Amino acid sequence: MNKASLVKLRVVSVRRLLFILVVIVISSSCAPFQHTVENPTRLQKQTIAKLNGTYHFRSQFIDSLHGEGRGWRYNQNFFNELDRKLLKDTLVLDSTGQYAFQLTMENSKRMQVNFIKDDTIFSKRSFKTKLTKDGYIKLKNKNFQVVLLPYVLGFIDVKRVRFTVDADRNLVFDVGEHRSGGAFIVMFDGRNYKYRRTYNRISDN
């Protein structure tokens, strides 16, 4: 076997190993939600319009599940939570601007989100969704992302997001996220993040 064939064989072997590692991590972690939290409003197909409304851009609490301490996502706003750019901030906020977002459920399988600055829409996003058996609307877009070359020099990120509303009709935003990676096939400790945020309602439209 010549040198070129050996190199090709090694590349294929590394790719197979990485694929197996990724499958194992996803299967074992699955980025679960916090199982002990209560769903304040069990949504149904006939009631998903309860989510429709305009909300404040930043959450009322940093994490209403584990207190208000500053966590690694302290500076996250709603745009960053959904845009899923893992290596850089996708939006630099103007300190003089007034930000909000408008959420509209087109049906149980599609959500429209408009991002607003000073009463003007500056960005629009459409997301695939699913109504779960336990009464949440779950986001289906970009749940799994790869950064660089996982476990060689990079990591994978699995993020699950679901929505409902509380008794005051504020938006409840639950996250279950798993992140793990490594360098040169040496795996670092994976981390699971579970948090709930509440975005205060501004209006119904």
Automatic annotation (TrEMBL):
Q: Which domain of life is it from?
A: Bacteria
Instruction: Report what the protein is called.
Output: Uncharacterized protein
User: Organism classification, top ranks?
Assistant: Bacteria, Pseudomonadati, Bacteroidota, Flavobacteriia, Flavobacteriales
